[in-house]
Amino acid sequence: MNNYDIVYLLSNIFGTYTIYRFMYIFFARRVKNKKVELTSYILYFLTIALIYISYNVPIVNLICNLIMFFLLTLNYYANWKMRLTAVVYIYAILISVETITIIMLSILDFNAFSKGVDIELILAQIISKILSYIVVLIISNFKMLKTEYYIPPLHWTAIFIIPVGTLFSTFMLMTESNPDNFWQILISIAILFLINIFVFYLYDTLLQLYQEKME
Description:
About 80% of the residues lie in helices and about 0% in strands. It is mainly alpha-helical. About 25% of the residues are buried. Mean pLDDT is about 75; it is low at about 110-115.
């Protein structure tokens, strides 16, 4: 595997969590079985990673993602129409964010400063995952407003700044660091992803507490 493949697989861990958050935008927080839900997301990540390593054919990746998305919806109580709608919307948003990211980076042409490292593709993979989560945060906030759950502006701002700060830090690491230090850069970015995941877990817990308070 090359550097891009490693980044793709690691960033997909964060991407899987983003999909998990997307599911809760479309479905109620009542799940059929929490353990089965966790297992299904782990299997999703492993399956997509295996398909990518084995085939890495765009159309195959697309079809498998759509099938796996639909299987993930089986964790939640919903009708078939809602399941299909969620799959289409989630995939459309993720693809749109990734496409926009690639176009913007192509315009900026970061590969001109990459010294042989395909920094554009690596940056696109990382940035698209972070931007996708920012989209989830924004949509989740609108949903909370509709259900009248009050989230203090300071809390929302703090949570929103985390992925934005990660995006800026990733950008600086990839553009200013020596390409020979790829593994040090990768470890730094992985740590940033972990910080995001733990902070967003606390954010989920906070939302549940506010929901209980409202009830």
